[in-house]
C-alpha cells in the first residue's frame, strides 16, 4: 500500500518553473534569500545540464508580482514562456498545459513561488491527470514554516514525491562516470562545501 | 491510494470559526499574537469577500474563556452564532450541526482555538459524516509545536486537507481576472510584503 | 482509505505509564524539564479524574534507570505496578499484558520515556493485537527532535493516533456540564494561562 | 562608571523615522513582517498620542527603495519630511539636522530600516553631538540576527539606550491616571493580548 | 574600570516583586508559561526561605491587568503590598519607596512583568539612588527576545547585575552546611532534574 | 491499511553503511558534527555488538569525496567493502547488491551521507525488491532540514521505517537480561547522560 | 565614557582577510555556507570597489587547512599575500604587520576564519597598537553561536567596532550620488532582495 | 577605557575545573550532551598538553551531585583535588584557594557546572583579588540560555574574558611550528571536521 519507487529518468522528465518573479520573491521567508536564489539557479542549471525540456510561466508579470528572475530568462532563452493573464493555477491555462504536453514527458519536476499555491495547485492538477510529480522543495518558497508544511502535507498525501535539487540531479545522473566533470562543476557552482572539497583535493593533487 | 485532489469551490464551501475567544487566545503560543490575529482576520475577510456562508460558535463564553473576538462579530453580524452551553466538540451541539447543514455546502473550511480540540474534533466528526474538510492551519492556534503537529497528524491521517488562508483564497478565486482589485485589497490588508509591492509598483506607475 | 475517527471513550480507555523513572528522565531533552514534568503529572491527574484504569511499569528500577517518579506512585497507590526484570518492550512482559487485558478496555492511552522505545514498542505491539492506541506525545520524552519525529512517524504509520494530554482530557470529558469545576481545576493546576484566566474572571465576578 | 539613568521626558523628546520605505521593507528579515509593521505603526501612534515632534526622512524614494510607508505619511501629514537626495546617513543632510534642531528637543527616539545603517549612523552622529539617543529596536529592521546584534553592540557601546516601543510609551506616560483610556486604546490597537484582556474584563464588568 | 563583584548578602537584601499579575502574565512570551510560573514561585520560595523582606506591588489590579498571582499573596501574607493607583514605575509611588526604605537593605533583588517596564524602571531608579540592584532575569517576563535583550542591555549598562533565581539562592546560601535539607528541598521543588538526582540517590542509599 | 509492525530481529538483519566519507561529512549540516560522529560510531558499535553482517561502501573515494571514516574501517576490518567506481545509488552496483544478498538477511538497516541520495536511493531500491528497510535517521546526515524532511517523507511513504540508533539497539536486544553489561557499555560509550547515570549509581552502590 | 563614534573613512581604511581557506571553511557552522560565501565575496568586492588596500594571509595552506578561496586570489591578484609558516595570530608574523603598516592606514577592517582566533587575535593585537578596528562579523565564521558570542564579547570589550559588510559599504560610500550605479551593482550582486527591487523598478520604468 | 588585550601565556596560566560531576551534568541543558562532554574533555586534554597546573574541585560529591566525571580523574591523577564539604563558591574554600596560589600563576582558565554559580562565583572572586580570568564558555554548562547570558553578562562586566577551548588552545600555542603534530592530534580528537580535513589530506598525500 506504500507509494512505489518512481525513479526520475532524464529521458522522461520535464521541468516546470512557476512564478519565480522578482516581486513574489519578497514573500519568501521560509528560506534565506541567498540560499533560495542559489537553489533556484541550481535547479535551472541542472535542467539545462540534463537538457530537460523546461517550461516557464509567470503570473501577472506586468503588475506588482514583477518580472521573472532575469537569470531564468537568460538560462532558457528558447523555452516555452507562458505569461498567464490571470489564472492562479498554471494548470488552468491552456497554453501552459499544452506546453507541458508538448514535452512528451510523464515526469514533472516542479518548483515555484509560493509553495502552497503556485507549486501545489499545478502539482495536484498534474497528479490528477496521471503525471508523476516531483516537487523540488528547496527551490520553492513561501511565507513561513506553517505554510510550507501544510503545503507539503497536501502534496505528499496526493502522491507527489518531495525532493530537493541535489537529489534530483543525482537521481537523473545515475553514475558519475557519465560525466564526472559536468556534475562536479554543477555541484561546485552551487555548493560551497563541495567547491572547497574539490579545491583542497586538486591543490594537494597538483602539489605532488 | 493517495488522497485525490479535492479543489475548493466557492459555490460549495462554508467557513466554520470555532472558539476564537478573547480568553482562549491567551493559550495560543505556537504562533505570535500579531501574526495569529492577522491570519484569523484574513480568513474572516476572505469568507466575507467570497460570500461564503459562515458559522460562528463559542464555548462557555460567559466564563473564563471570554467573549468572541469582537472583530469577528463585527464582520459577520448576521451569521449563525452558536454559543455552546457545554459541548467541547462543536459537532456534538445540534444547533451547530444544523447551522452547518443549513448552508447546504459539502466543503467545510475550519479554523479555531485550540487546534487539537476545537478544530480537530469537529473536523474529524465532519469527515466521518462525509464532508470534505479543509483545515486553515495558520488561523488555528494552540499551546506549542508538539501539540500542533500531533493535531495535524491526526487530522491529515483522517483525510483532512491542511491549508493556510492564502492558499484558500487563491484556490477559491481561481483567476485574478475575476476581480483584480478585490483580491489585491484582501492581500494588501493582510500581507505587509504584498502591500509594499503594490505601493512601490503604483508609485512608479503614477510617476510616469 | 484514511484512518477513521476513533473517539476516546472514558468507559473504554486505560492509561499505560511506561518507564517514567528518575534516572531515565535525564535522557529527555526534546521537552524542557519543567514542562515535561507538568505534562506527565497532568496525564496522571486526568487518568485519576476520569477513573481510568492505569497500569504502571518500570524498567530495571533498581539500577541506573532509577525509581519511578514518586508523584506517580502517590497518585496511583493501588494501580497494577509491573517492575520489569529485563524486557525492554513492556508488551514482552506477561504480567504487563495481563494487567492491560485485565482492564477490559480496548483503547490504550500510552506515554513514557523514551518515546521511540518505551512508548513505541508497546504501542506497536498493542496495535498489532488490535487495540486502539493513543500516544500522548507531550507526556513522552526522548533525546532530541530527530528521535522524536522518527518515532512519531513509525507509530502514526502503524495506526496510532497522536494526541496530547489536553486533547485527551477534552475528548474524554465531552461536555463541560458533566463537571465544570472538576475539569476547570484540572486545567488550572496544569496550565498557568488557564489559571490566570480563571483568576482574572473570578476576581471581576466577585467584585461586582 | 555606568551609564546614568536618562529618563524619557515627553516635553523633551522628538521622534525620527528613518527610511521606512516600501522597497527597503523587503530587506527586513530579523522580524516577521506582520509584527514589524505593527511595531512601526505603534511607534507612529505613540508619537502622535504624546504630540512628540516627528521628523520623517527617506533615501532615494524615487528609485528601487520605494515610497515611504503610506500609513506614516497619513499619520504625520504636517511633519517635516526630508527626501534625501543621496546621503546615506540622514545626519549628513543639512535639512534633516535643521529639522531635528528645530524641534528644540534633546532626546531623540530613533527607528528605521536598516538598523545598522539608517538607524545606527544618525544615532551615532547624534550621540557625538551630545543628544540623548533612544533606539527603538523593535521598530527597526535589518537582514538577520548577526546584523542586528552587531548594530546594537555598536550603538550601545557609543551610549545609546536600547528600548522598544512599549517601554517608550510607558516611560513617556509615567502614570496611567494621566489618561487611562488613551493609553489603553494605544495598547489595544497594537497588542492583541492586551486587547483580549480589555475585552474579557469589559465583558464581565458589563454583565454584572 | 569593570563593575566590582558585589556579592549578595542575606542580611542586606530585600526582594521586590513587581506586577506579577494574572492579566499581565498573558503578555509574557519570552519564556514558556510552565517554566515562568515555576521561576517566579522559586524566587518567592527563596525569599521566604532566607527570610528576606519582600515588597509586593501591582499596577491597576482592578482593571484588565488582573489580580496578583494568588500564590504570591499566599506566600507573603504579611508583606507590604502596594496596589499602585496609576504610577507605571513603582519607584514613582511614595508608599512603595517607603516600603523599600523600611526594609533597611541596600541590595535589591527585583523581578516582574514586563521586564523592560515594570522591572527596568524601578531598577534604574534604584540604581540612580545608590542601591545595589540584582535583576532576576528568569522570574521576569516580556513580549519577546528583542524586548528582553533591549531591557537587559539598558539595565546592565546602568550598573544592574543580571542573575537568575538559582544563582541568587546559591549566593545567598554560601555553604550547603548552613542547611542541607532546606536548600535541597527548595531545589527539589523547582528543578525536576535535581529532584530526580535526589530521588535516585536516596533510593540507592536506602536499598543498602 | 496501516504499515504493520515489522520488528527488527537480530538473526535476520544486516547493516549497510553508505558513503560515510571524510569529504562528504563536510556537507552534513542538519546535525552537529560531534553528535553526528557519535551516532555513526554508535551504529557501528551496535552492528558489531549484535554481530550483524555489515556492508561498507563508498563513492569515488579517491576524489574529493574522500576516504571512508577511518573508525569504520577499523571496526569492520573483514566486512565486504565496495568502493563504487561511479554509481550514485549503491543498489546500482552489482557487487554491493551481491554483498547484501550474501548476508542472507531480509531486514536492512541503512544509514549514510547524504540522506536524500546515498541513503534514500538504496533504501527505495531495496523496498522495491521486497526487503524490510529501517533507516537510521540520526546516523544519516544531509545539508539542512528541508532536505532531510523531504527525504524522510519520500522514504516513509515508500514503506521504510524511520528509526534511530538507540531504538535499533533496543529492538534488537529485546531483554536486558540477555547481556546487561554489554548493552550498558554500548550506551555508556555513546550517551553521556547514561554514562553519568551509571557512574552515579555505581559510586553510591560501592560506598555502601 | 562611551566608545566615541569612529567613522570609517575610505581614505584611511585597509582590509585584512585572514585565513579564508577551503579546508577551514568546513569548520564554519554559525552561518549557512551559501550565505557565508556570499558575505565574504561581498566584502572582497567592496574592498575592490572602494580601492581599499587589502592584505591576504593564510595559515599553513599546504596542509589540511587548504588553499585560499580561489575567488579571493582572483579578486586581489596584486595584493600582499602572506602565507604564514606557522604563526596562529597573523599579527605575530612580521611580514603581515609590515604589509599592514605599508598601507599607511589607521582603520583596519578585519574578517576571517575562525572568528575567535584568526579574527580576534589580530584584532586585539591591532587595537593594542592603537589601530581603529572594525570587525566584519558576517564575513567571519566559526563553530557555533557560543564561540561566536564569546569572541564578539572579547573584541567589543577591547574596543573593536562590530559591523557587517553592508554597513561597511554604506559608511564608506557616504552618499549615493558619489556613484549610484556602482553601489547599486555591488548590492544587486550580493543581496537578492535588492536585486529584485531593482529589477522590478526598472521593468516598470521601462514599460512606461 | 576598553579592556586591554591580556594574552594567555602558557607559562603563567592554570586551569580550574569546578564541579564537572556526574549528577550535576544532568542540569546542563544549554549545550547538547555529546558536544558538552567533548568540550570538557578537550579542555582537559589541552591543559595536559600544555602542562598547565590544574586544580580539580567538587561540591558534595557523596550526595546527589555525584562523583567527578571519571575521565577527569583519569587525566589528572596527580592534580590537587578538593572535595569541598559545603562551600558553594570554591573560592570560599581555603584549600582550593591555597591550591590555586600554589600554582604561582596569575592567569586562571575556569570552567564548570553550572555557569552562573560554580564558574561565576570563583571567577568573580578571583577577579576581585587581581587575577586575570578566562572563562571557557563552551566547557561550562547551565540550565538554559537565559541563565547562560545572565552569567556571561555578569562575568564580562566584572572583567573576565570569555573564550572557548579552541581559542584557549590557539592562544597558548602561538605557533604551529612549536609542535604541529601535537596540536593537530588535539584538534583531530575533538573536532570531527578537523579530523576529516586531516584524513582527506593525508590520504591524497599518501596516494602520490
From TrEMBL, chains A, B, C, D, E, F, G, H:
Question: Keyword Mitochondrion: yes or no?
Answer: no
Q: Which UniProt keywords apply?
A: Hydrolase
Q: Where is the Isochorismatase-like domain?
A: 14-165
Annotated Gene Ontology MF terms? hydrolase activity
Keyword check for Hydrolase = yes
Name the InterPro entries on file.
Answer: Hydrolase_YcaC-like, Isochorismatase-like_dom, Isochorismatase-like_sf, YcaC
| Protein name according to UniProt | Isochorismate family cysteine hydrolase YcaC
Amino acid at each position: 500500500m506504500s507509494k512505489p519507487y518512481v525513479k526520475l529518468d532524464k529521458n522522461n522528465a520535464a521541468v516546470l518553473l512557476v512564478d519565480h518573479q522578482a516581486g513574489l520573491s519578497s514573500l519568501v521567508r521560509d528560506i534565506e534569500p541567498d540560499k533560495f536564489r542559489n537553489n533556484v539557479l541550481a535547479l535551472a542549471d541542472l535542467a539545462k545540464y540534463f537538457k530537460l525540456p523546461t517550461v516557464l510561466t509567470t503570473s501577472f508579470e506586468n503588475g506588482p508580482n514583477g518580472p521573472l528572475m532575469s537569470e531564468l530568462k537568460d538560462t532558457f532563452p528558447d523555452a516555452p514562456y507562458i505569461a498567464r493573464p490571470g489564472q492562479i493555477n498554471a494548470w488552468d491555462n491552456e497554453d501552459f498545459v499544452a506546453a507541458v504536453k508538448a514535452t512528451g514527458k510523464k515526469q514533472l519536476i516542479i518548483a515555484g513561488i509560493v509553495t502552497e499555491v503556485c507549486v501545489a495547485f499545478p502539482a495536484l492538477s498534474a497528479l490528477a491527470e496521471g503525471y508523476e510529480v516531483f516537487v523540488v522543495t528547496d527551490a520553492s518558497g513561501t511565507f513561513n514554516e506553517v505554510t510550507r508544511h501544510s503545503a507539503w502535507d497536501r502534496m505528499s498525501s496526493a502522491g507527489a514525491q518531495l525532493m530537493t535539487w541535489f537529489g534530483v540531479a543525482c537521481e537523473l545522473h545515475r553514475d558519475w562516470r557519465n560525466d564526472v566533470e559536468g556534475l562536479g562543476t554543477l555541484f561546485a557552482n552551487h555548493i560551497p562545501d563541495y567547491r572547497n572539497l574539490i579545491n583542497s583535493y586538486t591543490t594537494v593533487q597538483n602539489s605532488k
